[in-house]
Amino acid sequence: MIKANVDIAPYTTFNISARVKSLGIFSSTHELSEILEQHPTKEITVLGGGSNVLFTQNYEGLVLVNRIKGIAIVEEDDSSVVVQVGAGENWHEFVLQSISRGWGGIENLSLIPGSVGASPMQNIGAYGVEIKDVFQELTAFNIATGKEKTFDYAACEFGYRESIFKKALKGKYIITSVTYRLNKAHIVNTSYGAIESELENKSITNPTIKDVSDAVISIRQSKLPDPKKIGNAGSFFKNPVVSKSALKKIQEIHPDIPSYSLDDDRVKIPAGWLIDTAGWKGKRFGDYGVHTNQALVLVNYDNAKGQEIYDLSQRILDDIKERFGIHLEREVNVI
To answer: Do residues 91 and 37 share a domain?
Structure first.
């Protein structure tokens, strides 16, 4: 299905108005091929749940909305299950279905907005788990050739909120399905203190994967605004990674700065702490601002413009650089 001159707001969680020249909705690779044949263009943006994008202006290209569905078991044994999932499936709904069927490994990723196709593209992660931990392979449609290709773990070049599809192959492929290996012999990950505290509050000492999922959902709902009520794209900024020597210099001025060791030389610093400490948390500027409960989240309270959100993010980036000497990066795709 193809529409012309469409307001993109209903297709994104920021709910910010911008006109797009053409919008195509596809539920199969055949439909995708037909749309691309009818609308050949070099400017293409692909949306799933529209949860990781900010439109700052009208778009003269083609926006594609992925609605490819389906969950199929590829192979299964007593300890694990390999399942192939359509890229247009809602991520959180897939997590809940997996838990109900006794498949573990992604319960810590509950309530992350967006589609299945976005999960490997930005290697989504939360509470000590990343998608690469359960990833097996994906299929992707080559826009130039019209052919599908399978990418295994190594070919995806996963990094922190990164993959090859956000770097060398950005804009060249459209992910159509993702295959995960989930476990039946559950080993729950409650290493993040917030999960442990939530479980303790519920007097749960031997948590199931559903218990962990419920805890994560409760935590996220307490911190993050519901995009159906307040427009947002979840975490707008990535947590920065710096050298341990750089951290020591920052600690001379800010001894209470939290950090998480990644290896012998690098640490990850919570971007939310930096933004909160700089005084941005809860600041409102008319129709937009920084959320009151989570400094990582920029919000559209009513009729904000995409450029206003972007300009606010730049002011925050500049301030964090000046205060801490740390360069923050946006996690959201800006158009």
So the answer is: no
pLDDT band, residue 293 (cuts 50/70/90)? very high
Rg of the chain in Å (alpha carbons) = 20
Decide the pairing of beta strands 266-268 and 288-290: unpaired
161 is catalytic: yes
- Same domain for 79 and 179, yes or no, is yes
- Domain shared by 43 and 96, yes or no: no
Burial readout 269-302 (b: 16 or more C-beta within 10 A, e: otherwise) = bbbbbbbbbeebbeeeeebbbbbeebbbbbbbbe
Same domain for 244 and 310, yes or no, is: yes
Predicted TM-score (pTM) of this structure: 0.88
By residue count, the chain amounts to: 335
Q: Is 22 a catalytic residue?
A: no
Catalytic residue among 80, 98, 161, 220: 161
Catalytic residue among 31, 148, 162, 331: 331
Element of type H or E holding 289: strand 288-290
Q: What is the residue range of 56's domain?
A: 2-66
d(CA 236, CA 272): 10
> CA 225, 289, 298, 20 torsion: positive or negative?
positive
| Mean pLDDT (whole number) for 290-305 | 96
Last residue in a domain, options 66, 101, 119:
66
Domain limit, last residue, from 183, 204, 223 = 183
The count of structural domains within the chain is 3
Residue 331 designated active-site: yes
Quick: pLDDT tens for 243-257. Answer: 999 999 999 999 999
Residues sharing a CB contact under 8 Å with residue 29, sequence separation 6 or more, in sequence order: 68, 141, 148, 176
Active-site entry in 235, 259, 308, 313: 235
Here the tokens at position 32 are 């995708």
Catalogue the E-assigned strands of 101-199: 125-126, 129-130, 135-142, 148-152, 173-183
Amino acid identity, position 290: V
